[in-house]
Design goal:
Elements (H helix, E strand, L loop, with lengths): L4 H9 L1 E7 L5 H9 L17 E7 L2 E7 L10 H16 L2 E7 L6 H13 L7 E6 L13 E3 L8 H16 L10 H21 L6 H19 L4 H11 L5
Parallel strand pairs: 1-3, 1-4, 4-5, 5-6
Antiparallel strand pairs: 2-3
Helix pairs in contact: 6-7
Length: 251
């Protein structure tokens, strides 16, 4: 149950999903296409997005927090642009899902290699949560199709619904083998871990044939008290303490 807390966090808060790529690859257009309305400013000018833009949306009962990030490139000189890139890299580090947008109508460039380097450095352990998409599929292709990538067009809407389904499908696999009991509360998570610590101490203690019963009982009592805290149960001492702390009790 304690191990389910990470999955419970997704249910409670949503999956942090960042849209990354080089400038003018269509990141903001993709955010707008996924949301279904114009949230981010889109222009032909490279580097329009200099800060992060976040929006929460629900797909098939699963919540996602989509973030449009500044384009990553190696030769940024403007201080504002540099700060935007730093923030984009920070989102690579902290995101649950990455959507890497590349321009299908342009050949690979050194800036894309920089994006790839940042992903390998900060997101290597989450390869299954990296989704590569080729945007501008309505234009002439200047690169071969890569295995495991999706071709979309934010202009025509082609491939957007398929991308949504892929995003949802990958997250549904996290819960396919999960029991109905999922922890979403930090307090419950801490109580379960505290109880587990006491149980492990108990197990360690009883390996000794001459262990003291009162010490074993104390570990079990502490473990049960932690679980009782989740259930809202209190013992008599706690009950009296709550009464005297919250109510005026006369003699």
């Amino acid at each position: 149950m304690a191990e389910s807390f990470e999955k419970g966090r997704f249910i409670k808060n949503g999956f942090k999903t960042s849209i990354i790529g080089i400038p003018n690859s269509g990141k903001s257009s993709l955010l707008n296409a996924l949301l279904g309305y114009k949230r981010a400013i889109v222009t032909k000018i490279s580097g329009t997005t200099t800060d992060t833009i976040e929006e929460k949306i629900n797909f098939s009962g699963i919540s996602f927090i989509f973030t449009d990030t500044a384009g990553i490139k190696t030769d940024a000189k403007n201080p504002i642009e540099k700060e935007g890139i730093v923030r984009a890299i920070d989102f690579i580090k902290t995101s649950d899902i990455l959507i890497w947008v590349m321009d299908y109508s342009k050949k690979p460039c050194k800036n894309e290699k920089e994006v790839e380097a940042q992903i390998k450095k900060h997101f290597a352990a989450k390869k299954t949560q990296l989704i590569k998409v080729f945007n501008k599929s309505d234009l002439k292709h200047e690169r071969p199709t890569e295995k495991g990538t999706m071709a979309i067009s934010c202009k025509t809407g082609s491939g957007i619904e398929q991308l949504k389904k892929l995003i949802v499908k990958r997250q549904e696999t996290l819960f396919s083998d999960q029991s109905s009991a999922i922890i979403t509360s930090m307090r419950h998570y801490q109580a379960l871990n505290n109880s587990l610590v006491e149980i492990k101490l108990f197990q360690k203690l009883i390996k000794n044939k001459n262990f003291r019963l009162e010490l074993a009982a104390e570990h079990l009592k502490s473990a049960l008290n932690e679980l009782s805290d989740i259930l809202g149960e209190t013992n008599s001492e706690e009950l009296l303490s709550n009464i005297f702390s919250k109510f005026c009790v006369g003699k």
